[in-house]
Structure formats: structure tokens, C-alpha cells
């Protein structure tokens, strides 16, 4: 069965520091992978997605993610975080039937 | 171009009651998926509709049912509400031939 693991429930970084959020997935075939961001009380906004091709994917708001098949990982990175990046981040995998399976999320806190 | 519209935004119901949530897809989208997001959790897939048919279903009881209309809008119905049904219900729409799903802002359901 497909699954997504986000090992960090909370992450705190200082404004201007770099960020890496971890994501590991379990899926038998080549996965479709996503990162979404959710601000409090809001819906989900797509940051980036990987379907095939270049394993380094660029997204919105300066985020990028790297697909590593050997490690079953799809970690999200940003070189310099802003206070407005404080939110909940969800990694997700989609199966061939368009069902999206989400991780439990990582809450990002930004220190001024 | 309106995105995904969900109504109502907030709802309070009593245990045992029934509720209907609505979703209007983004223009050009023909597929609607519903997700339940409990507090502090990632979204859980409920079911997906395409061409007015339920195409696949997650691990939710039959109390959860849905419908898709010819204009691609959709309803989620929950019968015999339980306290545990309290959650944010998210609608995601997309095109059957394209794996880019757009999420609405959700309906916050509170069962008392």
C-alpha cells in the first residue's frame, strides 16, 4: 500500500536560514509526488510536483524538491525562509487512479 | 477565473443529523475528489467522482456519500453524524487527463 512519511512534526528555523523538510514515500511504481502548503484555516496550495524527468523540481515561492529514487525520498528545500513561510507542509503521493495520499504534515515555525 | 469554490465555509451540526457540503470546480475541471482533514492530520481521501460516477473510494463508511452533477459540481453527504466527523472537508478538482489538482478552502464541520 502506498504511504507517505514526514518524520518531523515540527520544524523551527530562523528567518533567512535555509530549510529542508523531509519526506519518504512507499509506492511500487514510479510515483507522482507533490508538496502542498496550508496556512491556518485554509485549503491546500500546490508548491511543486514531480511526475518524471529532471529529479530537481522548482516550485513557487522559491521552493524546490529533489526526487531520490534510491532513498524513496522527496525532500523540500528553500535557501532562505521568510516569516510568511510559516505554515503546515504536506508531502503527497498520487497513485495511478488519481488518489492522493498525504503525509501527516510538518508544521514550520519561523523565528524572527 | 474562479478557482474551486466550497460552501458553506463553516457548519455546526448535532450528532445524528445529516449534512450536505458543496463544491464547484475550477473552470475546465471535470473530476472532483473529496478529502477529510481531522485536526492535526493530513487529508484523507474519501472518494472521487468523474462523469457523474464514483470512480474510487477510500476507507470511509457508507454514511459518506456523494454526487456529481452534469455541470461537474459535486456534493458530499454525511448521514448520522458522529462527533468524530468533525473536520475540515476539502474538495479537489482537476481534469481527468491532467494530474494537476486544485484544492478549495474547505468546509469546517463541527459536530456537537
Strands, helices and their partners?
The complex is a heterodimer of chains A (112) and B (112).
Chain A: E1 3-5, E2 10-14, E3 19-21, E4 24-26, E5 32-38, E6 45-50, E7 56-58, E8 64-68, E9 73-78, E10 87-94, E11 100-102, E12 106-111
Parallel strand pairs in A: 2-12
Antiparallel strand pairs in A: 1-4, 3-9, 5-6, 5-10, 7-8, 8-9, 10-11, 10-12
Chain B: E1 5-7, E2 10-13, E3 19-24, E4 31-37, E5 44-50, E6 53-57, E7 64-68, E8 74-78, E9 87-95, E10 98-103, E11 107-111
Parallel strand pairs in B: 2-11
Antiparallel strand pairs in B: 1-3, 3-8, 4-5, 4-9, 5-6, 7-8, 9-10, 9-11
Q: Could you explain the architecture of this structure?
A:
The complex is a heterodimer of chains A (112) and B (112). The radius of gyration of chain A is 13 Å and the shape is globular. In chain A, the strands form three sheets. In chain A, strands 2, 5, 6, 10, 11 and 12 form a six-stranded mixed beta sheet that branches. Chain A starts with a strand and ends with a strand. The model of chain A has no long low-confidence stretch (mean pLDDT 93). Helix content of chain A is 0%, strand content 52%. Chain A has strands at 3-5, 10-14, 19-21, 24-26, 32-38, 45-50, 56-58, 64-68, 73-78, 87-94, 100-102, 106-111. With 112 residues, chain A is an all-beta fold. The mean pLDDT of chain B is 93. Chain B contains no helices and eleven strands. With 112 residues, chain B is mainly β. In chain B, the strands form two sheets. In chain B, strands 2, 4, 5, 6, 9, 10 and 11 form a seven-stranded mixed beta sheet that branches. A four-stranded antiparallel beta sheet of chain B has the order 1-3-8-7, with no helix packed on it. The A-B interface holds A 4, 32, 36, 41-46, 49, 51, 90, 92, 94, 97-105 and B 4, 6, 31, 33, 35, 40-45, 48, 55-56, 58, 90, 92, 94, 96, 99-106, 108.
* Alpha-beta content class of chain B: mainly beta
Alpha-carbon distance between the two ends of chain B: 37 Å
Count of distinct strands of chain B? 11
End-to-end Cα distance of chain A, whole Å, is 41 Å
| Mean model confidence by pLDDT of chain A | 93
Q: What are the secondary-structure elements of chain B, in order, as H or E?
A: EEEEEEEEEEE
Q: Structural class of the secondary elements of chain A?
A: mainly beta
**Biggest sheet record of chain B:** 7 strands, mixed
Q: Number of helical segments of chain A?
A: 0
Q: Which spans of chain B have pLDDT < 50 for at least 5 consecutive residues?
A: none
Strand content of chain B: over 45%
Estimated radius of gyration of chain B: 13 Å
Assembly of the depicted chains: heterodimer
Strand content range of chain A: over 45%
Relative helix content of chain A: under 10%
- Shape call of chain A: globular
